[in-house]
Structures are given as structure tokens and as C-alpha cells.
Amino acid sequence: MDSPSRPSRRLAAGDLREEDYCTDLVSSTVQDLGGLDIAVLNAAYQENRGGLENLPTAEFDRVSKTNLYGLLWVARAAIPHLRPGSSIISTTSIQAFDPAPNLIDYAMTKAAQVAFTKALAQDLGARGIRVNAVARPDRPGPRSSRPRSGRRRCPRSVKTLRWARAGQPAELAPAYVFLARQRLRTSPVRSSR
Fold first, then answer.
1. Which end of the chain has fewer surrounding CB within 10 Å, N or C?
2. Identified catalytic residue from 45, 69, 106, 176
């Protein structure tokens, strides 16, 4: 339940491709909530490319800035506010491990997020701060599931999932709750498959 002195949730519209927004987001969250125990890094952009030759540099920059720069800026701003027992949880994708050729730029950033998570886990582990990732099965969004022709289809990786459908956010929530537990010791990357 929300109270005027300590809100339980906060909405903040902005663009994670802007460093000032990312640092202000963390600062205002810490100020509003009185601290920070868990940082969930869950934002991404993907577009069905239809091959590397169809990837404009401006779009590569957009994917990289959204999926990598924003992740780095938010995590970097959060670290000074985290105490032993705190947790950073990033959201990566099965694309990091089994990339689809039509999502080459997205898959590259998701693989980089796995490396980021592993390196940051080693760096912050000595301070008692846990860093993990949830590698979710792909959920086609309104843009990623539409090829240039406008017809809807699921990416190849979604078709190979056990249930032949994309994962839903509510199905992934237990993984985040599990990783956020303070007494947990885990390896840095967990697949939700």
C-alpha cells in the first residue's frame, strides 16, 4: 500500500539512451524511496532486420544505446547506493546464446549483457552485492514480430520453445523474486527456460 512518506512504486518516463536521464532516474528513485536495495535492468529495443545488410547504422546505435549504454549508466549510478545484500538483476535473452540472424544487432547486445553481468558479479561480489541476469525466452513485441511486409510472425527462437509461444512477463516474475532474495548465492546468469 502506498503512503505519502514512502511510495511503493514509481513511474518515470524517459529515454535510456540519454545518460542524464539514467543517472537522474536512479537519484530520484533513491530520494523518493529512501534508498536502493534492488536494481532491475529491464529495457531493450529490437527490430526484425532481415539480414545484416538491412541494418542501418542509426538503428544499430539505437539498439546499442538502449540495450547497453542504458544498462551501464543505470547500474553505474546505482552502485554507490547499494549495500551488502543488495542485488542487480539484468534481463538478457535466449538470443545471447542462440541468436536469430534477423535479430543480429539485438543478439549482439544481449550477449554483451551476459558478459557485463558476469564481470560485474565478479567486481561487486567482494562487496556483498549480487549481480545476476534472467535470460528470457523471446517475447515478440509489437515491432519485433512484424517483418517489413506487415505480416505477423514469431521469430525463429520463439517457434522452438517448449510451448511454441513466447514467454509472458508474469511467467518470468518468479525468477526475479528468486534472484532478489538477500541470502541467495548463485551463478550470474540464469535461463528462465
1. N
2. 106
